[in-house]
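Q: My labmate handed me this sequence with no annotations at all. I'd like to see what the chain might look like in three dimensions before we decide whether it's worth expressing. Could you predict it?
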Amino acid sequence: MKILYIVTRAIRGGVQIHLLDILRGYQGKLELILVTGQEGFLTEKARELGVKVYVLPTLVRPIHPLKDIQALGQVLKLIRQEKPDLIHTHSAKSGLVGRLAGQIAKVPVVHTDHGWAFTAPLPWQWKMVSIPSEWLAAHWCSKIITVSEYELEIGLRYKIAPPSKLVKIYCGVPDTVRRANPGKADEVNIAMVARFDPQKNHILLLQALSEIKLPFRLLLVGDGSTRSQVEDAASKLNLVERVEFLGSRDDIDEILSKVHIFVLATHWESFGIVSVEAMRAMLPVVGSDVGGVSEVVVEGETGFLVPSGDVIAMRDRLAQLIADPQLRIKMGKAGRKRYEENFTIEQMLDRILEVYQAVLANRPMGKSIKN
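A: Here is what I predict for the chain of 371 residues:
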């Protein structure tokens, strides 16, 4: 089975890490091709796996009619050249281009929605375009995978596609031998792994921690456009000595094994895969109660959910965990069990492969371009 994967950006982000896990999981089992709009983290890692990579600079994230038409033509050319059995698109823009190309080429397409574009806080002009675009693109694919029940329900509410075309598959992550010891600490280490991006709420986390007198250290892993603002906020809140900016890192599992609490402070989130990584490491998780985060974190069992933007609730839950090592241990063990039961990489790969096989077994796509 030859699969052509299409994604717009190659940055180190949740979508790209998810796709990289898919490529690793199917390596040697399927023939894999990656198409993306830029060089970066994903293309580098994919080449290390031996995956054939094509970079199309015209495949850009913003709406750009000329480049979008060029990207469509280039993707069609690649389909003719590579003759894939199936196309799997990720994210909104590549989903539109890839699904239209598949429709024209008569090659079946599976699309993964990582968060409907029209639900994000974007300009109204984009929302006016994105809803009808998703309606239309849904006709150009065989299945749409959502990464959470939350996103699936939105798809149904907006009638993006019929229930038979939508399927929920949670993002799984590969296991690791590294585990945290959340109960053992003289100074509690807290970590947040996330891009520095307007979507994330690093500043709320800093504000919450600035009111906690118990000993702690905060590790912020990631990079991005808002990092300088967060660094300024840490300085203004007198947290410079207690916050460490680690930048973009490859050794997330090792970092998580050395901390005691994980936090995901965010304005919106379709799933929150980093919370799964934290539970894999046996860490309690404090997460903003938005999107699909509540499908990962079980309130009061594997961690705490706090209302988005609520500094006081974030402060109180963090202070509670900092002060109670036994609670950290209890929640960490429950999180590990939940990971094993719901979020392993094997479960995810098996379900995605089932979708591929079902689509290829029932492909009323007409004459294929490769015939």
